[in-house]
Amino acid sequence: MEGVGELESKIEKLLNEEKQMRLNGEVAGTKKAVTEILQLCYDARAWKTLNDQIVLLSKRRGQLKQAVTAMVQQAMKYIDETPDIVTKIELIETLNSVSAGKIYVELERARLIKILAKIKEEQGNIAEAADLMQEVAVETFGAMAKTEKIAFILDQVRLCLDRQDYVRAQILSRKISPRVFEVDASKEKKKAKEGDNVVEEAPADIPSLLELKRIYYELMIRYYSHNNDYLEICRCYKSIYDIPTVKENSALWIPVLRKICWYLVLSPHDPMQSSLLNSTLEDKNLAEIPHFRLLLKQLITMEVIQWTELWKLFSNEFENEKNMLGGSLGDKAAENFRERVIEHNILVVSKYYSQITLKRLAELLCLSIQETEKHLADMVVSKALVAKVDRPMGVVCFQTAKDSNDILNSWAMNLEKLLDLVEKSCHQIHKETMVHKAALKV
Q1: What is the 3-state secondary structure (H, E, C) of the chain?
Q2: Which residues form the PCI domain (predicted)?
Q3: I want to staple 21 with a disulfide (CB 3.0 to 4.6 A). Which of 26, 39, 79, 249 is the partner?
Q4: Which has more confidence, 383 or 213?
């Protein structure tokens, strides 16, 4: 009781000093008084009194901004010294309520919410942790370091993915532009010196920009895996593959390059997929995994692929992906792989045939007539192919029907080419005649 009474008398004395300093507008004196009050409470391990004093000091009439900032920063140092989790949460919530709505302590409030969200997550309250993090819009904070902002937003995205809130995860991920990871570090240092706003250094536990780039794309892979958007997953792995620290270590880039090849194969045929396929084939590192080079080569070669033989070759590689970086390729991956091979084969047939019977097409694809017709219809609907099926005759036509304007244009073009050839021929004949006459004169 004596210890409590002594603490209260010391606090009372300091409160009077703080009042005088505050009314006189003495910033240094007021800051010193408030921090000393908090230090007294901390030394006495009077955590309830500490919380009460923080609230009391912040609500005093005309309280200086600098004093509130100093008080919050001082109290944040005590968070890790709290005796139990309940006391820790009470102190964080007190500081959170004091800093709410005050722009001059927005950085401290963001860090407090991050600590509290981490505690909630460890307790298994993912939804509560995600809701807490979403309250803060760090992209508007001028004093926060760029890497700390990115790390905070990535935590928001991760928590949304953990609670399977994919719509909000996508919205939050758009706050980070992929170009931010390509910024030159020397230019960034010059920018930081300009203007009056002082950007604080990021805490020591914040990862580097390249590490944040890897985390960002890993989270985006989780998001795109939900929709089985194979091409976007492939592009994410491509970005991870281009990180210098990954490219320097074969143990890191080999599993990433394997994933790039698999997701390219699983992606539906379109110009972007075709471009990535060709650029990947030009990569010299592909020589380290010749099996996958062979797989990609088969997809760009205009020849029919036998599915059963291909699956025998690659079924073991497909199963091995479960033990590789990034885990398995997904529940529907094997089914999609077969579909891509069928689509490739239909495209190959359409290049060599203008018309073909459904029965013969089914034989080439190793499918039933019903399955062949279904896959053909799906490709026509997705505009990957132009085809018409004459069911009574059982014939597939891959030629497009031209209207009258197209036919006239083709005729006009053919006539123009013919006249051009006639003119060139006449010119050559005239030239030879002149050369021959000149030779006779000599």
Answers
A1: CHHHHHHHHHHHHHHHHHHHHHHHCCHHHHHHHHHHHHHHHHHCCCHHHHHHHHHHHHHCCCCCHHHHHHHHHHHHCCHHHCCCHHHHHHHHHHHHHHHCCCHHHHHHHHHHHHHHHHHHHHCCCHHHHHHHHHCCCHHHCCCCCHHHHHHHHHHHHHHHHHCCCHHHHHHHHCCCCHHHHHCCHHHHHHHHHCCCCCCCCCCCCCCCHHHHHHHHHHHHHHHHHHCCCHHHHHHHHHHHHCCHHHHCCHHHHHHHHHHHHHHHHHCCCCHHHHHHHHHHHCCHHHHHCHHHHHHHHHHHCCCCCCHHHHHHHHHHHHHHHHHCCCCCCCCCHHHHHHHHHHHHHHHHHHHHCCEEEHHHHHHHHCCCHHHHHHHHHHHHHCCCCCCEEECCCCEEECCCCCCHHHHHHHHHHHHHHHHHHHHHHHHHHHHHHHHHHHHHHC
A2: 232-403
A3: 26
A4: 213
